[in-house]
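Q: Sequence in, structure out?
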Amino acid sequence: MWTLALRNVLRHKSRTAMTLLAIIAGVVALVLSGGFVHDIVRQLGEVLIHSQSGHLQVSRTDYFEKGARSPDKYLIADPAPISKQIAALPDVEDVMGRVYFAGLLNNGRSDLPIIGEGVEPAREAKLGSGMVIKAGRVLRNNDAHGMMIGYDLAHALKLKPGDWATLVMNTADGALNSQEFQVIGVFQTFSKDYDARAVRIPLPDAQDLLANTGVNTLVVSLKRTADTAAIAAALKQKFSRAGLEVKTWLQLNDFYTKAVLMYDVQFGVLRFIILLMVILSVVNSVNMSVFERVGEFGTMMALGNRSSVVFKLIIAENAIIGLLGATLGVVLGVVLAYVISAIGIPMPPPPNADLSYTARIGVVPSVILGAFAVGLIATVLAALLPALRVHKIPVVDALRQNI
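A: Exactly. Output:
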């Protein structure tokens, strides 16, 4: 059966080539579109991780729900022992403390409300690979009274590296505290809203201004983003009785979740259109091939072959074509993915961002397997209806096609 099916596939070269072309084009389109969407989502996640949130954040329980207005009430008073426990896990890259505050930044002429972060400069510099320095440089551990500010905030207050500005905030006791800081660098992240209000100063300076020695969160950087869920589960189990909670970067970046949902819907429609085109193209090719050979199948039945044998033969032929087309489509799709990725696809800034980026085509095993399955299954399914029609046609009517 399969030997005869293979001979028929090789014998009808033009029909086979037409069907193969439709399958290959559809599989390549599915591989490229799926890899493109995957790369966009991956890059968005990595930028958010390496510019703002880190992979995980450990804080006092309810800090993220209730601590925005009173961060001083949700301080980890002694973060060093907790940091050591987290850093001891094998998949953890680094752990750094942050303290958050709100206040005003004054340039001597006007002021704007800001959301500030006290950070550990050296460690944050390693984490912040997704942060673009537009002017100046990153903070260093020896930059006492130095600060980095968001690009849009610097533009609004007309500040540049080397300028001095006054940071004003309230302590936990309600006292007004202020200190002059020199702008060391101007940064830009993926979020325009963040860049319009963000100020970063060294952690010791922030603790002096707030009159405390604690931190609000411990930011955890991992060696691999894929380990986030496993490490989060381990930390939750470890600190469940210590009054601490663990948040992943997905929980901290609501914008990311909504953006991914938007992309999934948009490109899901695109993939459905591609899938529909593949099925229709293959159905058309298979229909043409089968009904051009009705006389041939009539001859087979006249020579004693049952109609069920003819039915199985048609399915076998198309299974071979589908397997070959899906394989060639996957190979061509992967090659094109690597070629296109080497060149890059310039992309405009996404919503709520000013940074453009270069998209690539990800080679994703699940996408490749799905595209292969679509090519193979669509071809076999497309052959069912024509095969059933041939199966039911009388031998005499089939033989008339030879006249």
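The mean pLDDT is 85.
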